[in-house]
Amino acid sequence: MGRLRCFSVDIILRYNSRDLNGNEEDSSEFIMGVKENIFWKKTYTINESLEDYPGNSIIAQEEMQFCLSCGWQNEERTLPENYFSLRVENIVAHEEKEAWGKIENSLLDICRTLSLQLNIHNCNKQSFQPRVQWENDSINWSAKPYEPYENLLDKLSEPVEYVDQNGMKHICIQVQSKIGMKVSTSCILYGYLKKNEFLSLLNLEIDEKMKFLIEEYFIALGSENMTSKFFHLFAIIEFIEKEYAGLAGANKLLSAENVNEMLQEIKGKLDSEADKSKQILSTLKGNLNRMTDIGRAQKLANILNRMKICNLQECGNELAINKGSMQKLIDLRNHYFHGDSGKENEKLLKIDIAVAELMEICLRVIQYKISDIQMQNEINE
């Protein structure tokens, strides 16, 4: 497997800063950064058996260093470049592939966090939908000997001589097991994003449901196809419709008793095979139980309003979150998901506008969930 080495890597994290509706020659840009340096540490463990010295191993507590910075387009250092430069140091591994495996999840977290943060401060989501990703071609590795490992090998290889009771001379190697090591690390993020906001988002402990929301949003940012963006964003909408159904303010039209009475009456009039009758009754029961005194659009608007998402500011225009605006999104969803021809195409909301609205709505849903998690953490402390 070879010797342990201490790797460092430089990576460019780039995002699309250009106007989605512009052309290559004449296009506006959206660029952001942070004003102060940000440092954080990530701890990991090394437990390495020494092949040439059976029964001996290195057990080490390590702290990786990340350094994230941005360049400047002018000497006054007021206009940042449209990418970040990331340096990661003190990655202890045998080879580059192993070192990459130790940082890849952290890189994904950083890219997701920066993407989320950029879009939190993006007031024109119709024109700009930046998603931060690393450039594979920019990855540049360097390595040096890992000193604690080398020192241990040197110590193990030092011969010790002694003479036994029979007068025979022996040369042996003394072994010391369980050598502990610690390497310090740090990370710098330079630009105009808020330090505390970045660290708070990066270190937030989230559950599988929150991971789903962030991942769907992150995928939508990276997709070039508007329909694909729309699908991923509407998955977030459908999630909150189920997860927060209690906020919809809807009342069932029929009680369980009413439903059963209706099904019994229908059952007596069915003249189909047993399997078909069962399927028909099951479908009817589900539909009848789901019927409420308000429709889907109003329920969705109520849920969002109770999340304090009452209006959107997009490109200087204000959009109220109400039954009408939600119905337009639902109509477009039905058109793409089911090929619903009930609405004429020219009356449907344009998909790029719908995506821009959903970008803002879904981001604020994620922010609502983040605030909920942070509040719960404060209560538990």
Walk me through the structure.
The chain is of the alpha+beta class. The chain has 2 domains: 5-143 and 178-203, no CATH class; 231-251 and 292-380, no CATH class. Helix content is 43%, strand content 18%. The protein is built from 10 helices and 10 strands. It has helices at residues 96-120, 147-157, 195-202, 208-222, 226-243, 256-269, 274-290, 296-306, 323-338, 351-380; strands spanning 5-14, 41-49, 57-69, 83-93, 133-134, 140-145, 159-163, 169-173, 311-314, 317-320. Strands 1, 2, 3, 4, 5 and 6 form a 6-stranded antiparallel β-sheet that branches. Strands 7-8 form a two-stranded antiparallel sheet. Strand 9 (311-314) and strand 10 form a beta hairpin. Helix 1 packs across helix 3, helix 4 (208-222) packs antiparallel against helix 5 and helix 8 crosses helix 9 (323-338). The two termini are 45 Å apart. The model is unreliable at 169-191 (pLDDT under 50).
Supply database-style keywords:
381 residues, alpha+beta, six-stranded antiparallel sheet
